[in-house]
Amino acid sequence: LICGPGGRDVMNVGFGLGLVDEYIQGHAPRTHIIIEAHPDVYAHAMSKGWGEKPGVRLMFGRWQDVLPQLLADGVKLDGVFWDTYAEYYADMRGFHDALPQLMRPGGIYSFFNGLAPDNIFFHMVYSRLVQVELAKLGFTTRYHPVKIKEALAPEVWEGVRNKYWHFDTYFLPECSLASLSQPSADATK
Fold first, then answer.
1. Which of 48, 70, 72, 75 has its CA 20 to 30 A from that of 156?
2. What Rg, from alpha-carbon coordinates, does the chain have?
3. Residue 102 in contact with residue 67, Cβ under 8 Å?
4. Helix (H) or strand (E) holding 27
5. Residue 114 CB burial class (10 angstroms; 0-12, 13-18, ≥19)
């Protein structure tokens, strides 16, 4: 969703296993910013050559500390993915508040939608809350249902003590920043 055609400027917050960043690289971005806060994960990314890849800017630190520098540098992005670990909804809201200054009109933002991953009612409440709050910032948000029960064999979760997803369907968020000539759509639609 965030990559579009090649030559875009994109950012991933939270390297993790590097799966999102591998996907981004497959779309030939012009600029690929990665923010990683965990020292071991950052060292792993460096050992895999991410700091040397053309167009990649691997930055160590918490997004709360790195983002002000990117904004001061005038960085503008076409796509952003956010998947941090051990943060709260208030942290996500703080990140969302910076997105309109960071993204170009028409840009796409997405995130790991793991809010209330073990209670479908509260998960949907959070999803709606995100949609309403992002609408106030100029984004139109929709969720693409992805059937994961059929995609993942049951043994994938064997031995995993803390599953980070419990439902048969994952709801992938696509949040589009309104272009200058087009106001954001009403979040109630």
1. 48
2. 17
3. yes
4. none
5. middle
Q: How many CA atoms lie within 13 A of 163 on its CB side?
A: 13
Q: In what order do the strands lie in the sheet with 9-13?
A: 56-60, 31-36, 9-13, 77-82, 103-111, 169-177, 139-147
> How far apart (Å, rounded) are the C-alpha atoms in residues 117 and 95?
20
Cα–Cα distance measured from residue 174 to residue 122, given in angstroms and rounded to the nearest whole number: 19
AA identity, residue 65: D
DSSP conformation class of 160: -
Helix (H) or strand (E) holding 131: helix 120-136
Amino acid making up residue 29: P
Phi, psi (deg, nearest 5) at residue 38: -85, 125
pLDDT along the chain (189 residues), means of 10: 87 96 95 98 98 97 98 97 93 97 97 93 96 97 90 80 84 91 46
| 146-179: pLDDT as tens digits | 998 777 777 887 888 877 788 889 999 999 999 7
Whole-number Å distance between alpha carbons of 175 and 2: 9
CB 123 within 8 A of CB 117: yes
